[in-house]
UniProtKB/TrEMBL annotation:
The chain crosses the membrane at residues 20-48, 68-89, 139-167, 196-225. Its main location: membrane. Keywords: Membrane, Transmembrane, Transmembrane helix. This is Sulfate transporter family protein. The keyword DNA damage does not apply. The keyword ATP-binding does not apply. It is a multi-pass membrane protein. It is found in: Membrane.
Length: 246
């Protein structure tokens, strides 16, 4: 697994990957800025008008609870762009990865597995759907652990573990679906859940590093291409016929 991570890191800055890297970084910057500002605006609205609206909806009995929630949200709104950018990065990289999955995988497969049959590009709609689903799940986790992050360091640990599971799952399935039907790819992920979660920890650690995490889609996808190959084991049917006849 460590070898796969090293290979992915070294290939990130290779000449064939640089164009994808810069496009990925540019798109991630645009998306993270838009979403972080949007989150800050949403939290600011809730800290003012939202509290009154919810109290009218739920009744006066919720006044104290909503005041506490409003106070938490006010703090979150003040830090929205900064912390929102940090916590939303896994969601952003999921979206970006779904756009570049085949570009990255093609380069990794050509360089490291030239004798094996290349994967089949995923339908664009399917890749985007997988990215959107993971992004939405990540945002839900972010909102769920936000109070814990504000009051205790445990929230950061919970978010890190959740990010490892979500990102490991998405990147592995994207890599596997180039060779397998979606249901088979998901079944393979479930059968190797512990290994893929551990690999997800590498990606979660990478996405936790400011600035560097903009390259997460490249690292995560390249890393999971290697992991899928290793978990697939020896597959003679993938070797080119010309090689088999030698």
């Amino acid at each position: 697994m460590l070898d796969a991570a090293v290979k992915a890191l070294s290939q990130m800055i290779s000449p064939p990957m640089r164009s994808i890297l810069w496009r990925s970084i540019g798109l991630a910057l645009v998306l993270i800025t838009v979403l972080a500002i949007g989150l800050q605006r949403l939290l600011s609205w809730f800290a003012t008008s939202g509290e009154v609206w919810l109290e009218g909806l739920l009744g006066p009995g919720w006044h104290s609870s909503l005041e506490v929630l409003s106070w938490i949200v006010s703090i979150a709104a003040g830090l929205g762009v900064v912390f929102g950018g940090i916590f939303l990065m896994p969601a952003i990289t999921s979206l970006v990865a779904s756009l570049f999955v085949d570009d990255v995988a093609d380069i990794v497969e050509r360089e490291h597995y030239p004798a094996e049959r290349p994967g089949v590009a995923l339908p664009f709609s399917q890749a985007i759907l997988e990215g959107v689903k993971t992004a939405l799940l990540t945002i839900l986790v972010y909102l769920a652990v936000l109070p814990l992050v504000l009051f205790a360091g445990a929230g950061f640990l919970i978010f890190f573990i959740a990010a490892a599971w979500l990102l490991g799952r998405e990147y592995f399935e994207l890599a596997a679906m180039r060779f397998r039907p979606p249901e088979e790819a998901k079944a393979m992920r479930r059968d190797n859940a512990a290994t893929i979660f551990t690999a997800g920890l590498f990606i979660a650690a990478f996405v936790s590093i400011p600035i560097v995490n903009l390259a997460t889609p490249i690292f995560g996808m390249a890393f999971m291409v290697h992991m899928h190959k290793r978990l697939s084991g020896s597959r003679p049917e993938l070797i080119e016929p010309a090689r088999q006849m030698r």
